[in-house]
Structures are given as C-alpha cells and as structure tokens.
Amino acid sequence: MILSTGSPLIGRNFRYVYDALTTDAQLVSISGGTDILSCFLLGCPDRPVCAGELTCRSPFPSVPLEFWNDHGGIKYREAYFAKYPGVRTQSDREQRRESGGFVVLGRSDTVLNPGGVRIGTAEIYRAIEDIAAISEADVVGFDTENGDVQVQLFVSLNRDAMLDERLRQGLSNAIRTRCTPRHVPGRISQVHDFPRTRAGKISESAVRSQVNGRPILNLNQFENPECLGDF
Domain with 148 in it: what CATH number? Predict the structure, then answer.
C-alpha cells in the first residue's frame, strides 16, 4: 500500500503510479494532520476506492488542547470549532462512494465566492486534470475593486506546450462543461513554477497573497521563493 498526503492526488497521479511504477500496490490519498498525529481516513486494501466536510464528533487521545500563547483559546476555537459548534472540523472535503470508500477532494477552506457562488478549487483541478499540456496548476481568488472575487488560474506546462489562445479556450471549455460557467477563470496565466514548501507542497496561500498584494510571512519556508515574481 502506498499512502499519499499533503495534497489530494488527481486522476493522472494514480494512472502514472499504476502505469510506470507498480500494478500490485494500492495507492491511497489519505487525510489527517500533524496537529493530531493521526489520520481520519486511511486506505482499506480489500475495498474499492456525497461530498461533505470531514468532521470528528468524539474526542480522541491525540487531539490538541490549545495553541501556544492563545490566551482564552480564541484562535483554537476559530480554527476547529467555529463552523460546527461542538464538532471538530478538519477543513478537508471528502466524497463518500457507494462502495463505502472516500475520495479526498481538497481543502474546504480553499473556497472562492465569485458573484456570491461558492466554488471549490478542487472542482477546477479535476476539470482540467486530463489536459495533456498541463503539468501543474493553481487556482486562487483575486479581490476586485468592487468587492467581488475573480477566479484566476495559473498553470505550468509540459515540454513543448505553449499557452496560446487555443489552449486557453480548451481550458475554459473543459471547466465550463465539467463544472459551470461560474467556474471559468477570468484570467489564465502561465508560470515556470509554483512556490513550494520544504516538503515540496505548493502553497496556494502564498500565491493568493502575492496576486492580491498582501505580504507573505516567512519566505524562508519556501525552497523557491524567487518564483513568486511570476505571479
């Protein structure tokens, strides 16, 4: 069994592992957290792999009790218990299949609201995952002057691919067809790379802060902070 965490895997990640690496191991996108030293969702080797928020209704031994210097527990309650009082929220969205298994869809706190319509960035990622030219992508919201949010899509491309009008139109059509017209980005841009933590995880929050002109705290956490100039 191969377990992956940090960011949810998309379809082509699974296909690559089974096509190029192994055919007799189960690849699982799991959900948990370093703050709880545990997992909420793991793979089940003898089962095949309605969307909703991942929550925990009962206490467990490794649940954190407080944040450092969080006097009165205000930040702690806002982080875990503000959305559903008395129920701990992990801020992950999952989809339960008829087989009883779960699919990790992505962070529930990466939700955009263009025109007041709630859009999960994971929906857009899934809509373009089969487009061969795309190597990686990041979706963020740009805060407009009139108080709305514009969906912006940044992509890095595979070798010999070019973000021309044909590819832009193909991306927009795929998102419109597989999602809704509201999901279609107002801007699609090409970048060479994305800001990555030392663990190799793309930081959506850093890109979001950069495009909105907000300061990015602790640039030392990134292995390639120089790429932020592309955004």
Answer: 3.30.300.30
C-alpha to C-alpha distance for 12 and 104, rounded to whole angstroms? 15
Q: Give the strand order in the sheet containing 134-143.
A: 134-143, 149-157, 187-190
188-203 residue pLDDT tens: 999 999 998 877 778 8
For the chain, how many structural domains are there in total? 2
Do 124 and 86 lie in a common domain?
A: no
Domain of 224 in residue numbering reads as: 111-230
Instruction: Render pLDDT for 3-42 as a digit per residue (tens, 0 to 9).
Output: 887 777 767 777 788 888 888 888 888 887 777 777 877 7
3-state secondary structure of 189: strand
For the chain, state the CA radius of gyration.
19
Tell me 21's DSSP state: I
Domain match, 103 and 122 both: no
pTM for the full predicted model: 0.59
- Cα(65)–Cα(77) distance, integer angstroms: 10
Of the candidates 103, 128, 135, the one whose C-alpha atom is nearest the C-alpha of residue 4 is: 103
